[in-house]
């Protein structure tokens, strides 16, 4: 009788183990797999962000270089200028958005269908001591986890070239900013030509007034 009872108790214990351990293992396995899924999703999102920013800044820099070759970019109004005007088809005067042009009539916009954004922020043209750069706006979190304007300060004095060489603005070989190669010599030529033309107009007007 004692042996029978002992066997029956062992069976009950084994049943309880199966009833609780197996579902518990299944829950733990599901939780682990879900955590891995979220981790992979997060990593993929960082890779996508990295690629999008790199592609956008390169494309925008090329567009500004194209505009410079056609219209000659004279200046930008601010240190940080929102890129929200490349969809403009026509405008009056020499300024479009925050950009001032020498030959505005040569504008061939729109240069893009939609002004690109990242994390709901438009990109910016940064006036730097080394030139103009297309950069993500303050508040954008890069794939390395660092936030523009908080962890990475971009302003007139920032060494953007150094950050693009081996710093926080290059992630897995993808640049997160792009320099706009504007021809300074051409710009100087434009200013010189404008001065010469202004002098010629002034001289012509003076002669005309004398004749009158």
Q: What strand line-up does the widest sheet have?
A: 2-7-8-11
Average pLDDT rating:
83
Query: Spans with pLDDT under 50 lasting ≥5 residues?
Result: none
What number of structural domains do the residues give? 2
Short descriptors:
212 residues, alpha+beta, 2 domains, four-stranded antiparallel β-sheet, three-stranded antiparallel β-sheet, 3 helices, elongated
Explain the overall architecture:
This protein has 212 residues and is an alpha+beta fold. It folds into two domains: 1-181, no CATH class; 183-212. The chain has three helices and eleven strands; from the N terminus they run αββββββββαβββα. It has helices at residues 2-71, 160-166, 184-211, and strands at residues 73-76, 80-82, 95-96, 99-101, 117-118, 121-122, 124-128, 131-135, 170-171, 174-175, 178-180. The strands form four sheets. The chain has a four-stranded antiparallel sheet, sandwiched between helices. Strands 1-4-3 form a three-stranded antiparallel sheet. The chain has a two-stranded antiparallel sheet with strand order 5-6. β7 (124-128) and β8 (131-135) form a beta hairpin. The protein is elongated and about 120 Å long. The termini are far apart. The mean pLDDT is 83.
Gist?
The protein has 212 residues and is an alpha+beta fold. The chain is 50% helix and 16% strand.
Chart the SSEs and their pairings.
Layout: H1 2-71, E1 73-76, E2 80-82, E3 95-96, E4 99-101, E5 117-118, E6 121-122, E7 124-128, E8 131-135, H2 160-166, E9 170-171, E10 174-175, E11 178-180, H3 184-211
Antiparallel strand pairs: 1-4, 2-7, 3-4, 5-6, 7-8, 8-11, 9-10
